Every structure is written in C-alpha cells, then in structure tokens.
Here is the input.
Amino acid sequence: MAAIRLDSVTKKYDGVIAVDDLTLEIQDQEFYVLLGPTGAGKTTTLRCLSGLESAHEGRVFIDNKDVTDWSPANRDVAMVFQQYSLYPNYTVRENLSFPLKSRIRNITPDERNRRVEYVAKTLRIDHLLDRATDKLSGGEMQRVSIGRAIVREPQAFLMDEPLSNLDAKLREALRLELKRLQRELGATLLYVTHDQVEAMSMADRIGVIRDGVLIQSDKPFEVYNRPKNVFVAGFVGTPKINFLEGHVTDGNLTLKGTTDTFRLKTEVMDKIGNVSGEVIVGIRPEDVNLQQQQDENTCAAMIYLVEHMGMENWVSVRIGEHQQIRAVTDSAFEADVDATIYYSFEQEKLHFFDQNTEDSLVL
Amino acid sequence: MAAVVSQRKKLANRIMIAAVLVTTFIMLIPIYWIATTSIKSFSDAVAVPPKIFFQPEMTGLVKVFTKRTQLRAPKYKITDQTLESLEADGVPGDVLVELAAVGKLYRTESQFTDAVNEALGPERATDYLALVVRYATISDPTPEKYADARWYEKLIYDSGEKILRASPYPNRLWNSVLISIVSTVLSVAMGTLTAYGFSRFRVKGEKDWLFFILSTRMLPPLVIIVPLFLMYRAVGLIDTHLGLIILYTAFNLSFSVWLMKGFIDEIPVEYEEAAMIDGYTRFEAFRKIVIPQSVTGMAATAVFCFITAWNEYAFALVLTARRAQTAPPFIPSQVGSGLPDWTAIAAGTVLFLIPVVIFTFMLRNHLLRGVTFGAIRK
Ligand SMILES: Nc1ncnc2c1ncn2[C@@H]1O[C@H](COP(=O)(O)OP(=O)(O)OP(=O)(O)O)[C@@H](O)[C@H]1O
Ligand SMILES: [Mg+2]
Here is the structure.
C-alpha cells in the first residue's frame, strides 16, 4: 500500500468549480474519510485521484510518484462505486477475477483462483461465487464490489459512498467489517461519504469538504471538538450542535434576543483571545445542562419538546422569543411542555465563531 | 368483488387475444396469397374468382430459375422418316411416291393440307390425310425430346415454353445476401462506435451533429438518385457490389447511430470506469463490457438495417444492371413480355422472403428485448 497526495488540484466542469485548489495527504495504511454534503466535490476528488478525470491544475502523487498523466489502469488503485459497480452478465466469481485478468497484471490462473477464494472467504461470500450478480441482495452486492477491490492488492482503495444505499442495520454491520478489513490488510483507504456517523466511526482522519474546498482535515476527535468553522461544527454530530448569536462584553456572554447572560471563565476568554463584540456561539446538546433549580450562572427557559431516544432524551427548550436550544439529558428526565427549567453550558465546550467569516475564534 | 374483477380481466384478455388473432390473420393474407400463387398453375393463378383449392405444382419455382422461350408452333414436312412410318402403316406405294414430291416445309397446317390435297387428289386425300398430318408434324419439342426431358423441363414444356438456360436468379439472391449482410455489419459496427463516442465523450455541438446525421434520412431517397447515378458513373461504381454496399451503409448509418446511442446511453458508465480502474484500457473496456451489454441493441439494429438493405428497390434498379443486381429489381424484370407470369413472380418473392425470415427468427429473442428495452428498464 502507498501514500497518496493531491497537490493543489482544481477541477472545473463548464465553469463550475467542482474541486478548488485541494491539497490532501493520506498516509500509508490510513483510513481517511472525505466528508461533505451533496455536491461538495467528493466524487470529483476521487475521480481525479483514480484518473477517470484529469485535473485542470495541480498534481496527483501515489506512492510518491507523480501519476498526474497516467491512465487509470496504470495508477493501480481500486475503486468501489456507489452503485452499478458489479459487471452484469458475470457471476460473482467472474466479477472477482476480472481485475486479475487484466493484461497489465499477468497473474496465473491458479494464483487467480487462490486469491478469489481467499477474498470470498474473508468477506463471507464464498457460497455465492457462482451466482449471477443480479440475484444478490444489496449487502451481498456491496461485499462483492469490496471484494473486487481487495482481490487486486492495489496501492490504495477509493470508496465512493459504498454503503449509502443499504439499510441502516446493514450499514452498521458493514461499517465494522470494513474497518476491520482495512486494519487487517494494512490498506490505504480513501472513503467518501456524506454521513458523519460513518465518518466519525471509521476514520483515522476526516477531511471535511464543501464547495470543492477542503475546510478541515483532522482526527475525528479534533473535528468534533475543535471545528474550524460553523459549517464543520454543524455538519458533525447528532443531534446537531446549537448555534446562538451572542455578544461578548467584559467576559460576559449575552445571547441575542434574550437577557440571558453568562459570566465566562477566564480560561475560556483566554482561549478565544479575549474577544469582545458579536459572535456566534456553538454548544453541543450534550454540553447543555438542564436543572430544576435556579443557580448561579443559569438562565430560565421553557420546555418546548422532549424526544425519547431510549438511552437518552433530547430536550428542546425555548429561550427569549423564538430561539431554541437542544439538550441531551439522561432518559430519566421528565418535564412538562411549557414548564420552566434552568439551563447552563459546559463552558469549556463552548465554540466561538466570528460572526462574519464564521471561522472559529479559538486560537 | 375479486371474482368480478378477474372475470372482467379474463374477458378483456380474450378480447385482446381475439384482436391479435384477427390482426395476425389480416397481416398474413398477402403472405398466404403470394405463397399459394407461387405453387399454382398459371391458369389457377389468374382464375377469377380466385381458387382456394388447386392442384399445387412447381412450375412457378422452376420458371424463376430458368430463362425460357415460347415453344414454336408445329411445322409440317414430309421427310423420309414420314414416308417410312406411312409405309409401315400400310399406305400404298403410289401414294407414297406422290407424297414424296411434297418436299417443302409448311408453317401452318392448312397450307400443308392444301399441298397434300393437291398432290393426292381429293379422294385419296380424305383417306390418308389424318395419317399424313400425324407423321409429318414436327412438334416442339419432338416426342423423343419430351420423353427424355427431366421433370422440370417437362413442367415448362407443359406450360408452353422451353428452357433456354438457367436464370441468374440464384446469383441475384446471392448479391442481395452479400450486399445486405456486408452493409448491415458495416452500419451496425460503425453506428455502434459512433454512438459510443457520442454517448461517452463530450463532443462539441453534439446535438447539431446528431441532428445532421438524422437529417440525411429526411430527404426522399429518390430525390438524389440522379446526381448519385452521375457520381457513381464518374467513379465507376455503377453495377458494383461495393457501390450498393457503400450506399446502403450510408443510408442505414444514421438510423444505426441513433438507435445504438439510445442503447448505449442506458448502459451505466460506471461499468467501463470500473473496468478501466481494474486495469483495462478504454478499448478493452468497450469490448468486454459495452459490447456484451449492447448485443441486444445491436441485434435489433441489425434486423432493421438488414431489412432496409434487403428490400431496397429504387437504387438497386437504377445503379445496377446485371453483375451486382440484387433480387428486388430482378423479380419484376421477370414480368417481361406477354402476360405477367404471376406464378414465377410469386415464387421469386417467396424465395426472397426466406432469408429475412430466417435472419429475424434467429435474432427474435434479442429483437423482442430490444424493442421493449426502454420499457423494461425503469
Ligand atoms: N460531469 C459533470 N458535469 C458537470 N458538472 C459536474 C459533473 N460532475 C460533477 N459536477 C458538478 O461538480 C460538483 C461536485 O460534484 P461531485 O459529484 O463531486 O459531488 P459529491 O460531493 O460527490 O456529491 P454527492 O454526495 O451528491 O455524490 C457539483 O456541483 C456537480 O454538479
Ligand atoms: Mg458523489
């Protein structure tokens, strides 16, 4: 397996910039997830990497070799497509051995069979080998396409939302398998998804991309806890982070549209360089505390909605006139709608963003 | 309620089947007509009202394969042979001597009888005339020839003609087969490649190109037949196989491109892209993935192209004369002089139909799937 590098890659389609000056480095044996909403340029990035599209600008390196002008076949990466990935009219076995029959690979039939059997066993599809591909379930199809990728032992794997059209249960199961497989093979894997849960659960590192621009490339923990901007903070995490407009003066945070004011700790103020003025405050629901008694540094709110999720409750409260905050409580929490409750924040977990640029103010 | 629905469904089904049967019946009538005419005798074929029951015969078929000429009317001449035969039948010697003097060849029976009457005098003439006429008749064919003739020659003699030589019909059929197959293969192959290009690559002005390709079919072909004839004559393509092949290929190409583009557009690009990433060149991917996937479309296109080329009449009539003439202009040329010989024309037509039937039958599975392609897929 090999490291991958994209160097200032730009790709345009009829004037639309699909990928904009994107620089990305993926280490050998790394599970890298490219995360972004639809139309962000994820697929385009993969296609530039695999050679299906040629970038307008920038260079592509695989295993430290400049492969920018190489054909897809010679780049020796394997790709799993979101759909239509299996060759029709072929059996599972033929699908798996197809990449091995390529002239550029020169593999003996015995070796071919050995590898196909091995991969089939690893992915637990050995009983399906002689099935036609249109007689497989979605999960089996996806396993076969993953199998067709790993049977080759390529430089790197590229996967374009391979699990997106499976049901939730199956997705979860395959997620685990994929992660285990990547570990076992020591594979370099670039995985594209718009599902942040997938990204968080599997990635060694996550790259968040929007409008062709790579916003942040970090470990999942960092992306979650130190988002670069409002977009990243909002994209990662379920339930979604709360954004509140606020005003900081002399270490006091006042939420817009309310009189709710919190005294910020000095560490927090230090972290954001003692800003003052208009800010966007982000606070994850699990970092919002609700309590029945009024306390120092709490403010009043009204219960708006309680969602029972099983192991926890999601409680939405109303502050001021129209604004809402969502909090995660344990499942024992009970409250009537419109009852008064008091809320406060885990101050260390507050995120501050510039009102205009939406970038994080954390230094 | 459910029973009512299924009853109604059954009824609807029956009506549909009946409608299909009636349509099929109507469509088959001309075929039936041609097929039966080809095995009727000439008199049955032109009988009014048409005959449903008749004695089948092969004359029509034999006629298609032969060049014939009308039998000559019998001629009359008293030869040594005639005299010997008369003698054997007991005609007295003096009569024979006088008859021998009538040495001329007579083209009609009345002239001949006049001559015999004159030679023998009215009395003896009445006694022997029938016998003399019988032995002096030189019929076409002669009885010996008729006796030696093969069955098909006899059939033709019986219909008042005799065979001169084999007709070029097998050769014309062969020309048709050759020209149709080659032009079909060419137009499907070129059409598939062109359609692939249009389908998979960004071609500047793609819509205009495609419209242009289609527009070559918007002109009635007859409009260009004269300039085409002049051009073909200038480059020496008149009456050559190559000439018709080029023409039919060009003619079918626009159709083939459009049809194949529809089929190839339906094949997801991902298959080829997967193959290219799996270590194949674009051409290998085309061969291994696209071709097997578009066999159905190619078969359907091939049938349409083949039928068009096979049935083409006007260009073949104008641009070919003998060497490269195809069957369609040849068959009506059989009408020739005198009465149109419908049995021969029908027989030629039936033979002409057979290759298309075989071709279509061989590809019928693909054809059915091809025609319903868009409907099945989403
Ligand atoms: N072949 C193309 N022609 C024109 N525009 C394209 C083409 N492919 C992609 N685009 C545009 O490029 C941008 C990025 O597309 P891309 O397919 O990379 O998005 P994505 O992140 O993969 O989205 P999704 O999650 O929906 O798959 C989009 O605005 C898209 O409309
Ligand atoms: Mg995509």
Chain B touches chain A at residues 268, 270-271, 273-281, 284, 289, 292-293 (CB under 8 Å). The pocket of magnesium ion (ligand 2) is lined by residues A 42-43, 160 (CB under 6 Å). Chain B is about 70% helix and 5% strand.
